[in-house]
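Quick question: what would this complex look like in 3D?
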Amino acid sequence: MANKVATRDAYGKALLILGKENPNVVVLDADLSKSTKTAEFGKNYPERFFNMGIAEGNLLGTAAGLAAAGKVPFASSFAIFATGRAFEQIRNSIAYPKLNVKIAATHAGISVGEDGGSHQAIEDVAIMRALPNMVVLVPADGEETRQMVLAAAEYEGPVYIRMGRLEVPVLFGEDYHFEIGKAKVLKEGTDVAIMANGLMVAAALEAAELLAGEGISVSVVNVSSVKPLDEETILRVAKETRAVVTAEEHNIIGGLGSAIAEILGEKLPTPMVRVGLKDSFGESGRPYELLEKYGLGKEGLVKAVREALAKK
Amino acid sequence: MSTVDLKRKANLIRQDIISMLVPAKAGHPGGSLSAADIVTTLYFKEMRINPQNPNWADRDRFVLSKGHAAPVLYAALAEKGYFPKDELLGLRQTGRMLQGHPDMKRTPGVDMSSGSLGQGLSVANGMALAGKLDKKDYQVYVLLGDGEVAEGQVWEAAMAAAHYKLDNLTAILDYNGLQIDGPTDSVMSSAPLADKWRAFCWHVIEVDGHDIEALEKAFAEAKQVKGKPTILIAKTVKGKGVSFMENQVGWHGSAPNAEQAEQALKELREEGLSLGE
């Protein structure tokens, strides 16, 4: 796991592929193109790149109009502004008419780091997941991001892709296959399952390795498609392990943990522990220090696994 | 269509508005009637459209940003033949095609779902940008309310339309001076409107929004303007055409009962006769 790539960097590169392959792809940004990594697309395809200035509501509305006229717009900003400031434009101008807009947001979660709590989206998945017609995706690494961005461009309808600022370990090669609506079992285990997405997938794999040394067998499932959710895989793994830990860089209210709890609660009640922000905002700090502090490091996961086992 | 025929059509559309609001028992007559001449001129004179092919890629587009005026749009679409006129009587009813606010997924001819105020100009900008990218010559029209321009997004979009030199875009501001809580000047002053849009680098045309001939000229002028978007600031009367609704804020969002509707239709039919209907 030596190599690291930020999902936002992989996004910027995937856009260049789309720029070449699909003339209908256009990109919009809100004065953050160097940070969201859309700038390179802008340099290569200037006529298909629209800087909308610091005006996210107008940006998402313009994306809706472009989609209504047959374009495939990728609308980018930081997750907090894309889903927060422009929520109702997304709701009424994109999700309600099911327009083909891809909301590709970066700088999600507390791993934004130094900028602090005002800039760390911890509620975006909950907000987007509550919208009918919206697909919600959270990539674990660069390769998955690349495949996800290409898949989103193929899919007809609104998609939210949640990416990060931080460089994260490379987990997958080109043989990996991302599919909207499918979860991936990365490691089979029998005692407990960690169902994670985003940068928590790498932490989950590390925690599983640590626990294996103690004789605890942990399944790791990458649930990068939060909506639609892969019920079949989740139920199968939960049935095998009979204890589930969910892990996300998001508030424990409304995100991946909630989505899985909803399914298990209705179809297969299973002891659960949700790892995430415990209904709190983040703060300034170095990304990995913050992740440790808020219980999102591998130690936090190990502790959660023990709690889940104790509930069995 | 000749100017006198347009006047007759606008009169029929006003009658449709009144008729459809009665069974709906709710809806917005005031702002629908104020926009009737504007919408009629667009759909029966200005716009290049084909009711047999509502999704024609080269068609002109219309975004009703003040989506609560849906009745005037529905009446125009029905008169144009996008769907049977019987549908008008299903307005706002469960399971029917005509929603309280425009819904592009349910109603043929509706180019954009709208109704949450302040969002339509941004969408129209996106359509106009797409037209330029595709080197198509279609025009995009968007109708705004004068209360609606209190929404900040309108000005974000105004800035962007000028920045991207969207001369294939024409906005129309239905300047009827009234909004739900009272006169626009007392709720939130928006004047001077023409100066504001000029300051945002738009070509501004001030026009009587009930003078169809003047509207025809204004739309023709807008098409000639290059390098910037145009807005028609159309002075209108809320409730226009029905004596007891004119300039009455109470008719912003309440439907006439059968008796009131009969009175309104009587007045409109008389006006129609005077136009030689």
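Answer marked as accepted. Chain A touches chain B through 29 residues (CB under 8 Å).
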